[in-house]
Design goal:
This protein has six helices and twelve strands. It has 296 residues and is an alpha+beta fold. It has a six-stranded mixed β-sheet. Helix 1 links the parallel strand 1 and strand 2. Helix 1 packs across helix 2. The longest helix has 22 residues. The radius of gyration is 18 Å and the shape is globular.
């Protein structure tokens, strides 16, 4: 008899800004424990000069494992640190890695992807999880398109290497662009590029959730950054969905089928100098996926 369990996946851009950083990490750790995601993809993890990093700190505080981790050097970072990507999990970690994406000659910080292999908690289906932080900036869409082409190729190569035709493949992170941009259209099969075709399911769109935006002037930190840049009215900052969770290939009604999505890490911290502020300048995204298994 077939039954279905659930896989809870979250993605969150921690935000490397130093405003209330320690309090924000404590708030994120508290939410991780309360939500108990199976997989948490993190972007803008800070790597400090002493060798420590914020992803390892969150793992220590919550009892999670760091499944994958790697920095992206940035010599212009005023805090004297580097940022990067990480994945935390409650599941097994079978293999993990890091891949730099196509370099942007205009910038000194390249995008990258970290990944790890595990198995779904109920059906024990091979599962590949990747997270990334694509290039930032409204004029960098061509660069982001090249980066997602790299990611799509990477996923195919990792699956072929293992010969896991039935693998559930998840891609989550900060893509720094809107759903109608070329990079997202390529990922979701609405545009073929350079002879490459593919299909990733946008979990937010497929669950038809009225989620709002992951970057919005409702977020205190967005307006704070706008004020730092001498923006006259922070409420004029565009509302955008720039954080995503994707599942590769046709999964509807199968293991990996998205059944629910929502915003997460959006609640006020209720502490510090800005108790009305959330834990990051991004809101996170959470998706629930089916995990179908045979009951004996």
């Amino acid at each position: 008899m077939q039954r279905a369990g659930q896989i809870k996946v979250q993605t969150l851009n921690i935000w490397h800004g130093q405003y209330e950083y320690e309090l924000r990490l404590h708030s994120i750790a508290k939410r991780i424990v309360a939500d108990a995601p199976d997989i948490l993809c993190l972007q803008e993890v800070i790597f400090w000069a002493d060798g420590s990093n914020s992803a390892a700190w969150l793992a220590y505080k919550t009892g999670y494992k760091v499944a994958a981790l790697h920095p992206q050097p940035n010599s212009t970072n005023k805090e004297g640190a580097t940022i990067g990507n990480a994945i935390l999990t409650r599941l097994s970690v079978d293999e993990a890695g890091y891949v730099p994406l196509v370099a942007d000659p205009r910038r000194d910080m390249n995008a990258s992807a970290v990944w790890f292999w595990t198995k779904t908690p109920y059906g024990q289906t091979p599962m590949l999880v990747l997270t990334t932080h694509l290039s930032w900036g409204v004029s960098n869409e061509y660069q982001r398109l090249q980066e997602v082409i790299d990611i799509n190729k990477l996923a195919k190569e990792l699956i072929a290497e293992k010969n896991y035709d039935n693998a559930l493949t998840i891609l989550a992170g900060t893509f720094n662009t809107i759903p109608d941009a070329d990079s997202i259209r390529f990922l979701t099969g609405r545009m073929a590029v350079q002879g490459a075709e593919n299909f990733w399911t946008d979990c937010w769109a497929e669950t038809e959730a009225s989620l709002g935006e992951t970057q919005t002037p409702r977020n205190v930190w967005i307006k704070t950054q706008a004020e730092d840049l001498d923006t006259f009215d922070g409420n004029r900052i565009p509302k955008r969905r720039i954080d995503y969770i994707f599942v590769k290939d046709w999964v509807f009604g199968q293991t990996g089928s998205p059944i629910d999505s929502k915003i997460c890490y959006a609640e006020p911290m209720s502490m510090g100098s800005r108790p009305d502020a959330s834990a990051s300048d991004h809101y996170g995204v959470e998706t629930i996926l089916l995990d179908i298994f045979e009951q004996k």
